[in-house]
Amino acid sequence: MERRSFFKILSSVSAGVAASSCSNKTDTLIPLLVSNTEIVPGEEQWHPSVCSECSAGCGVIVRVMEGERTVERQGHKFRERIAAIKKIEGNPLDPVSGGRLCARGQSAVQSLYHPDRVTAPMRRKGTRGTAEFVPVSWDEAIDAVSRSLNIQQSADPGKILFLTRPESGSRSATIQNFLSALNAPPPLTCSLASFAVERKASEVVFGWRGVPVYNLARARYVLGVGADFLGGWVSPVYYARQFGEFRRGRPGVRGRFIQAESRMSLTAASADEWLPLLPGSEPEFLTAVTRLLLDARLARDPEQLPPAVLNSIKSADVASLARICGLNVNRLERITRDLGESDAPLVISGASSPNTNSLHAVAAAHYLNALLGNIGRPGGILAPNQDLSPLPLVGSVSEKLKASNFLLLDYQNPVYSLPAAAGARETLSQLEMIVSFSPFIDDSSAYADWILPDHHALETAQAVVPAVAPGSAITVGLPFIRPLYDTRALDQTLVAIAHKMGKSLEPVTPERYVKSLLPPDQTWDQVACRGGLWQEAPKPVGNEVPRVAEAQAAHSEIAVSPDLARFPFYFQPYLSLQFHDGSGANLPWMQELPDPVSSAMWNIPVEIDPQSAARLDIRTGDWVRVQSPYSSFEAPAYVYPAAIPGVVSMAIGDGHQHYGRYASGRGANPIEILAPVLEPSTGTLALGGTRVQIARLDRAPAGFVQFSPRDREQGPWGYR
Amino acid sequence: MAIDLDRCTGCQACVAACHAENNLPLSDPESAAKGRAFHWIRVDRYYEGEFPSIRVKHMPVLCQQCDEAPCEPVCPVYATYRNDEGLNVQVYNRCVGTRYCANNCPYSVRFFNWFDPVWPEPLPLQHNPDVSIRMTGVMEKCTFCIQRIQRAERDAASEHRQVADGEIQPACVQSCPAEAMTFGDLNDPESKVSRLAASGRATRLLEELGTKSKVFYLERSE
Amino acid sequence: MLRTDPWSEGLPKRCARITALFLLHAALSLAAVNQPVQFPHNTHMKLGLACVDCHTGADIRAAAGIPSVTKCMLCHAKLATNKPEVKKVIQYAQKGEEIPWRRVYGFSSDAHVKFRHAPHFEANISCATCHGEMSQETVAVRSIDFTMGTCLTCHRQRKASQDCAACHY
Amino acid sequence: MYLRGDFENDHSAAHALRQLRAVGFTPADIDVFSDEPIEFPKGVLPRPSRMSLTVVTGAVSFMLLAVGFVYYTQHNYPLVTGGMPLFSFWATGVIFYELTMLGAILTTLVCFLWESGLLRRSRRPVPIIEPGIICIRIGCLPDQADEARRALERAGARNIARMEVAE
Amino acid sequence: MAAVPEVIPYPEVRRDLWRPLERTGRSYSIWVIILLAIALWGLSCWGYQLYRGIGVAGIRRPVFWGFYLVDFVFWIGISHAGTLISAILRLTDANWRKPVTRAAEAITVFALMIGGLFPIIHLGRAWVFYWLIPYPNSRLLWPNFRSPLLWDLTAITTYLTGSTIYLFLPLIPDVAQLAEHASGWRRALYRKLSLGWTGSDREWHALERAMKLMAAIILAVAISVHTVVAWDFSMAIAPMWHSTIFGPYFVVGAIFSGIAALLLVMSIIRKTLHFERYLTPHHFNNLAKLLLLMSLLWLYFTVAENLTVWYGNEPKEMAVFGDRIRGHFAPYFWIMVVCNFVVPFVLLGIRRLRNIRTATIASITVLVGMWLERYIIIVPTLSMPRLAAAWGSYSPSWVEISITGATFAVMALLYLLFSKLFPLVSVWEFEPHPAEQD
User: How do A160-163 and A462-465 pair as beta strands?
Assistant: First the structure.
C-alpha cells in the first residue's frame, strides 16, 4: 500500500510546527493546551524529509506528534509539550527508498534526541583531545572563528582544509561556494564510505560520474563480486528492494544470485551460492570468468572491449588465476556458463573493503558486463544519477591534514577513520585552528577549538542527491520541528562567517538548488510537498552503448605487510549496515541491534575462522589481541563458521574515544591498526591488505554479549 | 503474516522499526549480558554446513499469534488471551508477572520487564504515544502493532468502508526493504497474505506443535 | 541508561501512586480551586455554547483538547473584559502564554488505557455521562470516578467491545 | 446429677460399663474420661457416627459448588477468547478435585468438633483425672443414683463420687 | 527385628517430652537470634527485590524461572515429609510411627508455608498476587482456572488447610494436658487451643475417626499437590518438561526428600532435646529403609524419564538431555545421582553401615540431591527452548541465594519456636502399649 493519506496532512512548505509554550511545574500534569493551530494530541502528521545517515540519500517521511520534554527556565524545571518526531519511514514516492528504510535510517531519530548532543556553540577549555568545552554565544563563536579564518585566509587560503561528508546536494554546494569565496581548496572527505573506487572505475570505463546503477530487479542471473550491496555498500535500501523484486517480484521468475566475496557478508548470506574469494583476488576472479566466457563463446559483444584489455584477458591462464582466488576451475566454468547463458546476466562489483587493486577489479567487472551486453539495458548497468555538484574529493587526507593550518570538520572524524600510523591525532593537536560543526563531540571534535553545532538533519533544510537512483533524483527535506537546542544550520553558520569576513555568500537553499532543474510541469511547492524531485530514467538508447575505456592496469599486490610468518592473517575491516563508517556507533538502537553475523550486541567482535581459532585455542567470547606491524587492539573473538581460513574480519564502528555515552570507550577501532596504504588511483584508504597476528588474551571472557549465542539450529547432542 | 525467506536479507530493518514503533526499553551492555535486551522481532541466524559449502539461514521471528497459543491457557489472570480478530493480546495492566507464558512459548518471543524502563532525556520525546510504556514486572511481546490495526479500523469505520487488503502494515512489514513480509487478513481468501500462505512454499515455524501460528514462512527454495 | 537511580523507582513510588489514586478524588476537587482561572462552565453554556465549540477534539479526535487562550480571546477581547477572571485571561493572552490549566480528567499511566473521545461521541454518549452536567457546574471537577468497572458497565450495557485490547495496549 | 467412678484399667472400666448398661443406662448417659484413647470391646459403649457419610456429602457438595463457581465466574465475565471454550471441565478438573478435598477436610473438622461435643459446650461437670485413671461419668436422675453407684462398685471402682454441675 | 523397647513410665514420658517446653538453654537463644538475623536478611532482600524490580534476581530470558521455582518445588516436596508419611503410617497402623508423626507434620506445615511463599516472591508484581484469588471485584474479572498456577494455588491452599488441621487435631489432647500444668500466658494459649478438650470417650472417638479420615484425605491431597506442582512443568510444551511421568516422578521425589528431611530433623531433635529414648534406632532404621526404598524408586523414575528421551532422540529434547548428561549441567546431574542414589544406596543398603549417623548423612545428601534435581529439571529445559537462537544461560544473583538461604533459616526458626510451644513427640500417643509393640 502507498501512504496516500500523507498528502492530506503534509506540512505547508514554509511553516514549521510551532512548539507550545505552556509551562508548569514538573510535578503537575500539563493540560494539552495546544489546539488546532498547533500539534494536536493523539493526532499524527507526516512530513517528507531526507535521511542523512549515509550518502544513499533515501527520501523519508517523518511522523510528528506531541512530545514532552523537560526544560529549565529561570531555575525551574518545566515540562513542555513540543512537536516531536516519533518515527521515520521511507517515503513511498521516493524511487530510492520506495517507502522502506534500513535500521540505521530509522534510528536517525535517536541521533536527533540523543542525550549527548551538543546543545550550544562551545569553545575549547582544556588541552586538545580532552573534550573539555565551555558553552559560548553564537556571536562570540562566529566572531572568533571568522577572525582567525580571516587571518588564515589572507596568509594562505590553501592551508584551509574543509572535511565534509561524501554527498552532493544543497549543503555541499554551499560549502563549495564558501570555500571558493575564500579561495580555499575544495572540500575533502575522509569518510570510509565514499565509494571513490567505484566512482573512479565508472568514470574511467564509461565516462560516467557517479556510482553506476545496477538494475538488479530485472536481472535473472547475478554475479556479485566484492560488493556487499545488501549490507553496507552505497545504497542498501535501494538494493534490498531490488533484491526482493529480483527474487520473487516477478511471477514465475526467480533470479539466481552468486556472490563472490572474501567474507560471508549479508549479501553472500542471501546468495544461492557463495564463492569464498581470497581477499584481493577479485581482479583475478573476474579475469578468469571473462576468459572462460570468451572461451565458451558466450560473450555477446567482444568488440566492446578495448583491444589491450581483450588481449590481456586472452593471455590469462585460468588455472593459475583460479588458484590465486582459491577456487575450483570447474566451479568457475559452471558459473560462467550459467552467467553467459542467462537471459539477463549482471555482474555487480564494488569494493566493500577497498584493496590497492580494487579499481582493477571494478573495471574488470565493467568489462565483463560489456561482454555480456547489458550496459544501459534493463537488468544491466545503468548510468548513474549524475552528480549535480561535485562531490568532495577523496584522497590522501592525512597528507593534506599535515599540510594545512585551519581545519573545518563537518561530520568528519579523521582521528577515527585514519589509521593510527597516519598520525591524525598528532596532526590535529598541532593544527593552528580546528572548527567542528558536528552535533556530537566525536574523536576529532574533541580536538576542536570551536564547536559550532549543526542542526540535526531533520531540523534543517537540505536537498540531497542520492548516491544511487534510477534516473535523476534530488531528495528534499525541510524543517518541520523547531530545533531542539541552540544550534544552527551549517549553511547559516558559513554565511554568517563569510559575512563577518566581508565576503558575500548566498546559501544554496534547497529551493535554489532544485529550481534550476525544475521541469516546466512541476513547481517548487510540489517538490517540497512530495519530498523530492524525481524523474524517470532516460530510456536506455538502443545500441548506443557508452564508450568502454581501458582502465589503468592496477597492480595486484595486496599484501602490504609481507611478513607472512609473523603476521599470518589477512585483516579486513568492513562497513556494516548498522555502523556504516563508524558514525552509527553512538545510537543505542544500533548498538543493541544484534550483529547479523555474530549476534553480538554492544561490542563488535573479531571474526575468525574455526580452524585458525582451534589452532590458537580461541573460543567465541575470548578476548584476543590483533596486532599489525603498526598497532594493535584488543577485542572479543567470534568464531565465525563461514570465515575463510586465514582471513579475519571486523566491522567498523566501535573504538571511539569520544562519541557520546553509548559509544565512548566501547570496543576497538579496526582501522587504527591498518597500514596507511591508499588505493593509488583515488587515494582511498585501502581497508584490506593489512596482515595481522592474533593471540588469545588470558582475560576473563566477559564483556562479549550475544543476543543469540547459538548459531546452529541443532543441539550439539544430535545423535547419541 | 507471511515472511518470504527468499526475499529476507537479514538486514534487521524490521528490528529497528519495531523498536521505534513500540517504545521498547533500551538495553545497556550489562543488562544485555544478563539476557534482558528486548527485541519483539529478531532475526534468527543459523549456519548450515561447514566452510566452504556453508549457508546462512536468516529468519525473522516475532510473536506467531498462534490460534492455539501455548502461552494463553497457562496465564492465571487472563493477561494474555486471543481476541476476536485472532490476535494474541497481552494486557499489561492485568499481568502479575508469573512468566509462565514466556516459558511455554516455543518461539521464545516473550519479553519481561525486569525493571521499570528508563530513557535518558530527551530520548523519551521519540516515544510513540499510541503505545504504552510498560512498567516493571509485566510481560510484553509483539502485538502485530495493534495500535496500527486499531487506527486503520477506526479510520475505515469512520469512512464507512472495509479495511483494504494491505492497508494495515505493522512497523516491521512497513520497513522491510526487500518486502519480505506481507501482512493481511488470513480469513479473507482473496488477500495477498492468504494467497501466499496457500502457496506451496509456505510452512509454519514448529508446526508440529500444533500451535496454528499465523506467521507463514515462505521457504527459500530454488 | 538503564542503570537507574534505585531510589527513583520501585515500591514506595508505586505505593505512593496507589495512595495517590485513593486521594485523587479529593485532590482533584481541590485542584479545581487551584485552577489559574475560575472558568465558569455554566455561564458559558447558558450563552448557548456547546462543549465541542471549545473542546474541539471531542467529536473527531482522541483528545477533547483544551482551548488555547487565543480561542478565549476571540470573544473576550471585547466581552466582559472588566471581570477579574477574564482580566487574568487577557493578561495571559497579552503575555503570549497559555493558561496553565490543571488536569482534571485522565488515566494513570499504569492503567495503560488508550481512550479516544471520537468513538464515544459517535456512539451518542453525551459528554455529561462522564464529565457531569457542566451546565450546572462552574469550574470543572472530577465528578465521576473512572474505574474499569465504570467503563465496563457502560460497555456492557451498550454492547460495546469488552475485549481488553479495545482499550489496553 | 452426675456420678463419677474411677477405674485403674480398661478391663474394669469395661466391666463397669456392662454393669451400667445392664441396669438400663444408655450410652448417651455415660461418658468415659481418660488421658488416652481407650478401646472397649464391641457393643460395650457404642458411639454411632455418621462422620464418613457426612464427609462424603460435604465433599460432593463442595465439588458441585466448585463447578458452579467456576462456571459462573467464567461466564460472568465472558472474556473474548477467540473460540476457546469459556468453561473447560477437564482443564479445571484439578480445581474441582482440590476443592472437593477441601470440602472433605473442612467437613471432617466440623464433624470432629460436632461429634466430639467440643462445639456443644455443655454445662456438665468435667472430672479431673489423674494420669492413667479411667473415669466414668454417669448422668442420672437422683433416684437412679444408687443403682449406678452400685453398678460402679460392683465393677471395682476405686473411687465413686458425686459431681456437681458447674455454674 | 528391633528389641522390644523399654516401657517408660508415663510421668517420665511426660517429663521428658515436656522438658524442652520448660527449660530454655543459652544455645537455644543464640540459635534463635542467628536464624532470626538470617531470616531478616532474606526478608530485606525480598524487600529490595520488590523495591527495585524482579530484575535483581538472576533470572533472564529465556530462563524465566530460576531459584525461586526450584525452591518452591523443593519445599513443597519437603512438605510431603510429614503428612504423607504420617498418613501412610497411620493408615497402615504402623505403630512405630507414633513418636515420629508430630515432627513430620510440623515439617509439612512449615515447609508448605515457605514453599507457598515462593510463587509470590517470584512474581513480577508481587503486590498484586491477590489477583490470582477469585474474589468479586469491580471489573468482574476472575482468574483463569485453566492455568496450572491456579491449580497450584487451590492445591496448596487445600493442602495447607488440611495439613494444619492434621497437625492440630492430635495436638489437642496434648495441649489440653499441657494446659493443666502450664501457667501464665502458656496456660491461656493452651486453654484456647485445647478447645475445651476433656478427654471424654466421645472426643477420643471423634478424634480417632477424624484422624483416620484425615489421613486418607491428606494422602490424596498430598499426592495431588505434588502432581499439580509437576504439572506446572509438564503442562508446558517445553522440551523434557512435557512428560507424563512427571506427576508420579515428582511425588516420589517429594516423599523421598520428605523422608530425608524428617530423618534429619529427627536426628537433630534426638541429639539436642535428648529424646534418645523416644526416637530409637528402631525408628531410624525403619525410616532409613523407607528412604532406601524411595531412593530406588527415584532412580527408577529418573532412568525412565531419561531413557525414553534418549531413545526417542527428538532433537529439541536431546539438546536438553545432552546438556544435562554431558554438557554444561552434567556436574549438577551427576552430583545429583551420587547424592540421591549412590550415597543412600551404599550407606543404607549395606546393613552393616546402616545406623543413625549414616542415615543422617544420607538424608543430608538426599536433600542436596533433591534440590539439585529440581534445578536440573527446571533450568536446563528453560535455557534450551525449542528455537536454538533463543538459548541462554542462567546464574543466580545474590538476592536469590540470600532468599533461598533465608528460607532454610526460617524453617529452622519455625521449628525452634514450635519446639518451645508444643512437644515434638506426641505425648498421648506415646503411651507405652506393651501389647502392641511390634
Answer: unpaired
